[in-house]
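Open question from group meeting: does this chain pack into something compact, or does most of it stay loose? Before anyone orders reagents, we agreed to write out a predicted structure and look at it together. Recording both the input and the output here so the notebook holds the full record.
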Amino acid sequence: MHGYAWPHQIGPDGSRRGSGLRKGCADGCLYEDGYALLRCTEGWANDDPTTPQTRIHPQDVSEYRGVVAALWEQPHREEKYLALSYAGAFDEFVISDSMDLYERVVTEGAWWDFVDETATRLVGRVLFKERLRTEATIRSWIVDDDMWLRRTSIICQLKHKGDTDTVLLADACSTNLADTEFFIRKAIGWSLREHAKTDPDWVRRYVDAHRDSLSGLSYREATKHL
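Structure tokens returned:
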């Protein structure tokens, strides 16, 4: 597994410093946009940079975006997971100005593990905080050619509970009812099942109104706890 040394752990000559390091090599130092990431082939180089003890706070949204992008561009899935962990660690930068970055993660990640984490922990948080600025983007994803953006538009409100925009949820689901893709059908059922924990009557009405259009998978998921 590769590891990283963060800015306060890298000297001007590229050498490592700082008490957070355990082991690692000094090869492959990558500098970009005023900070550094040090790839290490000998093992994990430092504690998780998103934990309170070792978290490196970005100075602004530009630095936040830069770190997330640099981690995301690394070749290994573990490094991309770290990008998502870092991205979610700084709520003040999980904002509409970062939505294009999250869109990139969704379209390039193109699998449920990256997409679902981004949809619920990042995109959903932006929508919750900045609904007026973000809804148009989510609505454009409902009909996007990219299946993973459509999935994101359906599940991004999973954690919104009583603040769920049911009009947006219904539009995201209804627009994609005819899609035969497993990940879309699963997303529809999942989003409805989750909202049923907050408003089961609304979900019952939606399911009854669309019974003929819902796939068996979506219906089973939506009604699992009703």
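Observations to bring back to the group:
Residues 62 and 93 are 9 Å apart (CA to CA).
The two ends are 44 Å apart (CA to CA).
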